[in-house]
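USER: I would love a firmer grasp of how sequence relates to backbone shape in proteins. This is the protein in question:
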Amino acid sequence: MAISFKVNHPITADQFIGLLESSTLGERRPIHDRDCMEGVVSNSNLIVSAWDNSVLVGIARSVTDFHYACYLSDLAVHGNYQRSGIGKRLQALTQEHLGPLCKLILIAAPAANSYYGEIGYTHNDRCWVLDPGATIGD
């Protein structure tokens, strides 16, 4: 298996949705909202992707300022390609495109929670989420 890795290579919403469906991330993303998925892909400013010929098999999709913080929004690897080092390589290539002081930040899927600690991330329990439709109180 010869996997190629690309940075900011064009990805269609259909390719992205297909990858999410073939990984565990599809169940936690609004894959049936095409407008949302198109916006997700087109508004990310750092996408590292893994390809098996013309098939998208992995993605590290981030929003970043490249200097201080990089939010790794999606890390997905096709189920048939998992446990082959693709996810680690996607993260390493993401890091290579960031400044030396830039932190890589993510919210782990429940099934992947222990994975990140094993590869060098530190746990931070101070994440807060404001859901759509919620109001900020006084």
Remarks:
- The chain has four helices and five strands.
